[in-house]
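Issue 218. Parser rejects a valid record. Input:
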Amino acid sequence: MLSILPDELEPGMVLAAPVVNPDEPEQELLRRSFAMTEPVIARIRSMPIPQVFVEFPGLEHLDKHLGPYLSPARAQTLAHIKSSITAVQKGSSPGIPFSLYKQTTQDLVESLLTQGPNPIYMDSISAQGGKAVSHAAAVAHLSLMLGLKLQDYVVNQRHRLPADRAKDIVALGTAGMLHDIGMTRIPESLQHHTDVDRPESEESLRLWQTHVEIGLDLVRKDCDSTTIAVVYQHHQHFDGTGFPTPSTVMENTRIHVFGRIIAVANMFDRLLNPPRGRKRTNAEALDLLKGQYGSWLDPVVLKGLMAIAPPYPPGQRVQLDDGSWVVVVEVDPGIPSKPIVAKLKPDRKTPTNQQIDLRMPGSPQIAVAPDASKLATAPPTPPAADRPAAVIKAA
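Output the parser choked on:
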């Protein structure tokens, strides 16, 4: 596979991954293996689709990273999320089909395990357009990958449980799907706001923040205690700031490890795919998380994110500081900013047999990604001070 811009599509190119509707992410516009034609290319270029994955000779080994995104479990995840969001929006509130969420999450975990010991998060497929369904699916997917990557840390943080129960991350996935369910019950004019792009007026900010308590009310009847706790905690920060403030439903001030994981996944996706503004690259989003928002996040989880969502993921093309263009073919989770790359021919698409290990002393360094000029600038500065965080007690 190779990640390319819509402007670079050519007739005859074959899709390595589906192209989804940016406004309805559960809807596939084009299926995998579709051969591009001029009319279809023109249509794609008219839509806000940031990039497309195509098959390319010499890069077939990268296709393994796409497996979980092509699995039936991911399609089921999108369907369940959309169904619940639609029901809540209509006010019917039939209850959360928690057993279905649990089974779908387990299926998604199994598909993630097919990626091997060093899975890579392909954000361009996981979320497009910043809509509610795609955001919930992205957070669930990324949270599960973090849970698998940080299994020892998760078990350590859940020390009150036997190890076999402590490493069970199904509740992490279900909480990821449901974390923003309360947003469906606040005014539509406020639903595009995020923790890094908050409403300006105090009244609007307070109303927007109520989506957490609303979400708690929507899930507390049907979900387990851990899922309920994490839905409530996803805006509570590692440095003690965040919201909501303590209330009678809380028993202590310790943020559950799943809450810390979802906080990282939530912010990362909001920076990558903001509801307002253009998409950012992994590198831009990670720089903001480490710098501007670093104190809000568990440093162990943030380090884990760097390993599974590297600045330059496989299939991305970048320019080195010696002027040459290359494609990323392998990422070392220990040094994710220095991947192994393959040189490209003058067309900037066709890989050569010459590979460069950017970890080696004296090797050239990455200078720029080809789509960087089209991406958004930094988000608004976060408030200087927040109200103190607290959590619900859960396993």
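Fixed in the parser; the record now loads. Confidence is low (pLDDT under 50) at residues 246-253, 371-394.
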